[in-house]
Every structure is written in structure tokens, then in C-alpha cells.
Design brief:
six-stranded parallel β-sheet; globular; UDP-N-acetylmuramoyl-L-alanine:D-glutamate ligase; 9 helices; alpha/beta; ATP-binding
């Protein structure tokens, strides 16, 4: 079982448009609503693969009730924590060439009592969890050290934790030795305070995060592939080029694949790449099912192309 904690979940509404024209009345060629938030997406990917997953989420207002219903329809066990205010609604506009325009709401402010209730829900439901995946931005209310507290409590309970966040929350948690951190290239660059222009730059940045406490780093480099640095070595994973329909939730699908495959070594990295590649070919934030996965074109290697320029270098 994989338990996820998403402190700032959402309802994700996606509209597919023939063109995005500012100031115009636009008619959607297709639309969908999905339960959203990084940890929620991890749970959705695990459930789509037939695995058991529990999602700890704050729920507020009718939006929160709809989020809980959608999660249950996906086969996800919901450990909901009532909060004041309403669960946020995010909007994504998709153009035919794959360009995405996102509007993310701030979400409700989480009171101290509700933040503690989420930590207690994690403790109460994690006894048989193989992994706890703690994902996404922090809501208004909890300070950046809140994720560090989640890591501490997980380890005190004998569990393993994967942390997918950024900024001050990531920095504060590194010293508590999370078992895995999963930054993308921009988040990795922010964490080390310098731009990344090559795969080698990303490797050095990931090594720095390990030096600051992370036991393993799974770094997504977008179309360029993924890096894994853990106690067994440094690995680089790639897949065949595909036509991307939407990259919303692709990193979350990657993390789900990585954890479901054991969360260690090249086999887990290969699963992460396969899941992420399948996810970008799905509409909106839809998660891939096993039938969508194509592991054949996925390769992993310890021969890292350190001089390869990143397609999208960070600034």
C-alpha cells in the first residue's frame, strides 16, 4: 500500500481549445474534471495500476465533497480532514500544439488544528504502508518546516517517505533525511541556487541534495529523461520521443511508478520513465493504466551523458 499526503489538493478542470485568444469568448472542444494535487495524482496512478492506496487530504466545502467522491470512484481510500473554506479549483487551457495555460488557485488557509489532524491521519493509516508520498506545495498556514515534521514522524514510526516539494519546504526537510526527494529541473536548480545547462549540471545538483541529507534523488529533466542518485549508484533513464498531449501530472505518475517498483535502483527508474512517458500522452491530468505503459523503448544506464545540453536549461 502507498499512502499519499496532499496538503493542498484541488479539482483540476481542463479545457481543450482550438486556439487561445485573449479577451475572446472561447468554446471548448473537450473538457474534463479530475481530482488533483501531486499526492492525489500519485494515488490515482497507483490505483489505475490495481494497487492499494490511501489519500490523506484536507476537504472543504462542496468542492471538497466532490473531490472525495471522485477519489473514491478511482478506487482510492480517502482519509479526509475537514477544513474551513473550500478546496481549490485549478484550470488548465490546452491548445492543439500542446501549449498549456494554467491558473492555480491558492486554496484555503489551514488552521493549526487541521494541520495536526493531517499528521495524525497519516500516522493512523500508515501501519501497512510500503511508502508515504508527501507531495505538493504547502497551503497557507503551515510553515516550511511542516514537511520536515512529516519526515521525522514517518521515520519514528519506521516508515519510508518520498518527498516531492520545492523551495523552503524542501530545504527545511533535507536535513531530516527523506528517503527520496523528487525535484524537476527547475526545482533542482532553485534548491542549489544556480542554473542548470547540462545533464552534468543536474547530476552535481542532485549530489548536493544528497550531501545535504536526501538519501536518494529522483530528478525529472523533462524531455531529456530522468536521473536517479541513490546508495547503489547514479543512473540516467530515457525513453523514445513521443507526441505530448499534456504534461500535467506526468511527474506524479513517474513517482508512482518508481515507488510501486520498489523505489530503488535502475528497475525503479525504468518504471518511473515508463509511467511519465505514458502520462504525457494522456489528456488533462489523466493517469496511465498498465495498458498505456510501453517499457520496451525505456533505457537506463550508468554512463551519464554529462555534457549533453538540456532541452530546457534553467535560469
Amino acid at each position: 500500500m502507498i499512502l499519499t499526503l496532499t496538503p493542498n489538493p484541488s479539482l483540476d478542470r481542463t479545457y481543450e481549445l482550438p486556439a487561445l485568444e485573449r479577451g475572446a469568448v472561447l468554446r471548448s472542444a473537450g473538457d474534463r474534471v479530475d481530482p488533483g494535487g501531486k499526492g492525489v495524482n500519485v494515488s490515482r496512478a497507483v490505483a489505475a495500476a490495481g494497487g492499494r492506496t490511501v489519500a490523506v487530504v484536507p476537504l472543504g466545502g462542496p468542492e471538497g465533497a466532490l473531490l472525495a467522491r471522485l477519489l473514491e470512484e478511482h478506487g482510492i481510500e480517502v482519509a479526509g480532514v475537514p477544513v474551513a473554506g473550500s478546496t481549490r479549483v485549478n484550470v488548465t487551457l490546452v491548445e492543439p500544439d500542446g501549449t498549456l495555460t494554467k491558473v492555480n488557485a491558492a486554496g484555503p488557509e489551514i488552521a493549526t488544528t487541521a494541520a495536526e489532524a493531517m499528521l495524525e491521519a497519516v500516522r493512523a493509516r500508515s501501519a501497512d504502508a510500503e511508502w508515504i508520498a508527501c507531495c505538493g506545495s504547502l497551503p497557507r498556514g503551515p510553515g516550511p518546516e511542516w514537511y520536515a515534521e512529516v519526515v521525522d514522524r514517518t521515520h519514528r514510526g519506521g516508515g519510508r517517505i518520498a518527498l516531492d516539494t520545492s523551495g523552503a519546504a524542501l530545504t527545511a526537510a533535507l536535513g531530516r533525511r527523506p528517503d527520496v526527494v523528487k525535484p524537476n529541473a527547475a526545482e533542482l536548480s532553485e534548491a542549489v541556487g544556480r542554473p542548470l545547462a547540462t545533464v552534468g549540471d543536474a547530476v552535481k545538483a542532485a549530489q548536493e541534495l544528497r550531501g545535504r541529507g536526501a538519501r536518494a534523488v529522483l530528478a525529472s529533466l523533462g524531455a531529456d529523461g530522468q536521473l536517479l542518485l541513490d546508495e547503489s549508484g547514479t543512473y540516467f533513464g530515457t525513453a523514445a520521443e513521443v507526441v505530448a498531449r499534456s504534461d500535467v501530472g506526468a511527474g506524479d505518475a513517474s513517482l508512482a511508478g518508481f515507488l510501486a517498483a520498489g523505489g530503488r535502483g535502475p528497475a525503479a527508474l525504468a518504471a518511473a520513465v515508463a509511467y511519465g512517458t505514458a502520462a504525457v500522452q494522456k489528456p488533462g491530468s489523466a493517469m496511465p493504466a498498465p495498458a498505456d505503459l510501453d517499457p520496451a523503448p525505456v533505457t537506463t544506464t550508468t554512463d551519464i551523458p554529462v555534457s549533453r545540453a538540456l532541452t530546457e536549461p534553467t535560469r
